[in-house]
Amino acid sequence: MRHSRLADRGKRADVYSLAKTLFVLALPGRGLYPPDGTHHADGEEFSLWGTGGDTRSLGSLRHVLEAATAFEPRRRLSMADFRDELHAWLRGYPDAQFRPRGDRPRYPYGWELLRVSVEHDRRDREETRSMMVPCIREIARALTGDQQAWTEESDHYGGEVLGDCGGEPSGEDDGPDNGTIWMATSVFGKRRIVLEAVLHDGICFVAESQAEGPPWRLEQQWGPTEWGRSRLPRTAEQVEKLTEEVIAWITRPAARTQPSRGTNA
Q1: Which of 8, 43, 200, 241 is the residue whose CA sits 20 to 30 A from 259?
Q2: Three-state secondary structure string covering 144-190
Q3: Chosen domain end from 107, 137, 168
């Protein structure tokens, strides 16, 4: 509401207020009021301690609350997105419970704001990678029979996708601000599967079957997915669905034969 934009009519402020209310309801013994400001997922004052859920389920919900309380309204979830992210979280973790933690609010400013921005990007990349690792392992298992038969760009110079990887979400810039995260299976039957995340104030995913390399030839492409917010349940659902499509293609009878010279991309 600090921008006083009449067209907005306070909808993003309502999302912020609802997130604060849900935080208090989840932690009834914690105090009368939640900490002020954005619910930074890694901040101790915003921790959710589970009495039934595991660390990953509670961490996932903290990321939803962070997106719903983002300081910049344009980065904040809409009410519809907040609803959908909570539904996605509940589908994955229907039995999670909580217990309280101490209250120690803090407010970044000046150079601290820049540090927070850099830290935000770092966490985006780390959480995206954690979403992708189980997926590339399942793809590697389907292709090679070994879930450890994969590598990533940090271990293997020259990784790339050959088709259109989606560009940028808004069309306003020249390319992805935060780069990509690239992973690939080992070569099996003259074929490897590449899984990549493109990061640009959001995330999309693309997967490819590349054959007969190097140099590699594009055999099949899946995605790019729709652009999603970093570290949120619906974004994880997108890469999981993409993985299911890749595995279904790998395990079909025709895909078990040696790749042909034709391109199905």
Answers
A1: 241
A2: HCCCCCEEECCCCCCCCCCCCCCCCCCCCCCCCCCCEEEEEECCECC
A3: 107
